[in-house]
Amino acid sequence: MVDKQSEMKAILLKMKEDALNEITKAMKSGANVVTGEPSGDIYDQASSERDRELGMLLGDREREKLVSIDEALLRLDEGEYGICEECEEEIPLGRLKALPFARHCVKCKSDIERQQAQTKRFEEDRAYREIAIGEEDEG
Asked: How far is residue 3's CA from residue 135's CA, in Å, rounded to a whole number?
């Protein structure tokens, strides 16, 4: 068990280092965008804006990943690493190697995602009904 934990801790620390490097790289590339008067034609400006937005999105994903890694390291220190937060069964080593900061076993994660999808569909249906009712009131 100790070997598995030290192996996973090394993997998590390496992932954390990589994520920090990606965030730093994204920040540097964002800082390199020259402010002031726009240069180039409208297509160049649109391309630059798209690249900037993509960089910000990737930066957000890296920050979320970093939080997940830090939480996994904390669970390791507390002896709760590798235990599904839903069913409290041990998460298989293969899943942990694929996704070292996994909080749920595959079955529970699948159930959670299915429930989230159903909730999202329900909320979207309700919003569409409210829009339709509002349009009827206007007419």
From this structure: 63
Residue 79 inside a domain? The answer is yes
Residue 136 maps to a domain: no
CB within 8 Å of 23: residues ≥ 6 apart: 59, 62, 63, 66
| Short-list 106, 96, 98, 105, CA closest to 76 | 96
> Would 18 be classed as within a structural domain?
yes
CA 12 to the chain's CA centroid = 16
**pLDDT tens per residue, range 57-110:** 767 788 888 899 999 999 999 999 999 999 999 999 999 999 999 999 999 999
Report the number of distinct structural domains present in the chain. 1
Structure tokens, 97: 């190697």
CA-CA distance, 85 to 115, in Å (whole number)? 16
CATH of the domain at 84: 1.20.120.910
